[in-house]
């Protein structure tokens, strides 16, 4: 059964006018239930992750600053979120959602988190709507518990996974792969194990050609026994914060290729939602929903 992390706190309200589309966290599960792609049994509710597990990835003093709400104004502004106890609880719950999804992936081949994909969080600071890095935390949890030996992080959000790259810059067990807009945020990029910067306006055909050339090579060379997939839909032409020009169908084909690649090789995969900032919320929901539909079709 496809298992998916979801908690009501994912849609924690932000001040009116805030540009982050929190409503997608409520609307996406509603859509998937309404159309019959998922049932209530597909969802599980995570609890906040323990600080000890977070400490496998993030600096102890940074975790303490979050717990005590002691980020300074510059640090708060860098995250993009107003700091509160509720926000920290939400972030920790998202982290646990990806950890638990990884456990389910080991059992069923795939699991997903309605939130997550917080790839801008560094080991010691937050950035770009990310305070803690869920894929990094879950990857280190699997390594620490000897449930995985070699991990590949496939980051296909339109923005580079700069925090993930920093966290694993010296790791021989985690390979970081990021395909992202060359001229997109963040202005200062980190060095992933493989970065592919994409030119503005790139469409379906060129994008998919690049992905289909590189991903099989990485799987064959790195031989991962687990994959984390950051499947942001901000690669769409309609996205307000992206500079690429993929269609809904192109985005769906991207997901199909990644999921089928894992399924055919028998590699467990955990998917985190990532970004999506199109003007119309229905476009965001449709693009994200396609990932879940494909997971059901391919794996179950």
UniProtKB/TrEMBL annotation:
Family stated for the protein in its record: Belongs to the histone deacetylase family.
Against InterPro entries, the record matches this protein to: HDAC_classIV, HDACs, His_deacetylse_dom, His_deacetylse_dom_sf, Ureohydrolase_dom_sf
Q: Which CDD domains match?
A: HDAC_classIV
Instruction: Kindly list the biological process annotations in GO that this record carries.
Output: epigenetic regulation of gene expression
Q: Indicate what this protein is called per its UniProt record.
A: Histone deacetylase
Tell me which residues make up the Histone deacetylase domain.
18-280
Q: Which domain of life is it from?
A: Bacteria
Which Pfam family is an annotated match for this chain, by its short name? Hist_deacetyl
Provide the GO MF annotations for this entry.
histone deacetylase activity; hydrolase activity
